[in-house]
Write a structure and sequence with these properties.
- This protein is of the alpha/beta class.
- Helix content is about 40%, strand content about 15%.
- The chain has two domains: about 160 residues, TPP-binding domain (Rossmann fold); about 90 residues, SIR2/SIRT2 'Small Domain', CATH 3.30.1600.10.
- Helix 5 runs parallel beside helix 10.
- It starts with a helix and ends in a 7-residue tail after the last helix.
- Bound molecules: zinc ion (ZN).
- The site of zinc ion (ZN) has 8 residues, from loops.
Length: about 260
């Protein structure tokens, strides 16, 4: 038996026995869908812009046009992307009733588009936006699609203010209520699945550690190391689109199994 096969079987065994599972997902679950990890050098998204000069809250207030110029190619990629088999494996896991929550750092909405319901977006998402002037929150997908097509900044229909997509920018607080629910889920789970996150962005990356400190087992699938590698019950270096459907199916939990 290969080492990878052995790890997949151990992960499946842990998952099969658990009744309360929480998944914590990062950029790595969406890279098979063609969405680059926009925090990484080499993603092509930071090459011309320092993130602090475009993607911070103060930068957005003073120079929204620079933020939108930066976010336009990422938004285009996100709208063109489809959920992949790793997202679908989590939908299947949720259907078994074992999955208490998907805590995601991703803003792409692909978990929801795949059909997952228990999604907690700790870094926000692109599908809603809030007017900086009258503070109305609206469904933003159509406006942003129009912006991707014609480059015109999305404007509030009620007052003409500039709409800010509800993604958490640098300098911005995480959404308190969502983060509280994520922490509760993490503290109540028996198995924490960390999927495609290098666990570098605090404070959300602290949630898996809180889970294991509260007694959860940790299954970690990522390309590249994380600060929790030593504490993982199973640590798999691999592509989620290959590994995760195998784990779920081997655990006898996929809908098709
Ligand atoms: Zn407005």
């Amino acid at each position: 038996m290969t080492a990878l096969r052995d790890q997949i079987e151990r992960a499946a065994d842990i998952l099969r026995r658990a009744r309360h599972v929480v998944a914590f997902t990062g950029a790595g679950i969406s890279t098979p869908s063609g969405i680059p990890d926009y925090r990484s050098p080499g993603s092509g998204l930071w090459e011309n812009d320092d993130p602090y000069t475009v993607a911070s809250l103060s930068a957005f207030r003073y120079h929204p046009e620079r933020f939108f110029r930066w976010v336009r190619p990422l938004t285009a990629r996100i709208f063109a992307a489809q959920p992949n088999v790793a997202h679908e494996a989590l939908v299947a896991l949720e259907a078994t009733g074992k999955l208490d929550a998907i805590i995601t750092q991703n803003i792409d909405g692909l978990h929801q588009r795949a059909g997952s319901r228990k999604v907690l977006e700790v870094h926000g998402g692109l599908h809603t936006a809030t007017c900086g002037h009258c503070h109305r929150t609206i469904l933003a997908t159509e406006r942003l699609q129009k912006f991707v097509a014609d480059g015109e900044l999305p404007i509030c229909a009620a007052c003409g203010g500039i709409l800010k997509p509800n993604v958490i920018l640098m300098e911005e607080q995480l959404p308190v209520a969502v983060f509280q629910r994520a922490r509760q889920a993490a503290l109540g789970c028996q198995v924490m699945l960390v999927l495609g996150s290098s666990l570098e962005v605090l404070p959300s990356a602290g949630l898996p550690m809180e889970a294991i400190n509260a007694g959860a087992q940790l299954i970690l699938v990522n390309i590249g190391s994380t600060y929790l590698d030593e504490r993982a019950d199973v640590r798999i270096e691999g592509d989620l689109a290959i590994v995760l459907p195998e784990i779920v199916s081997l655990a006898g939990l996929s809908v098709n199994a």
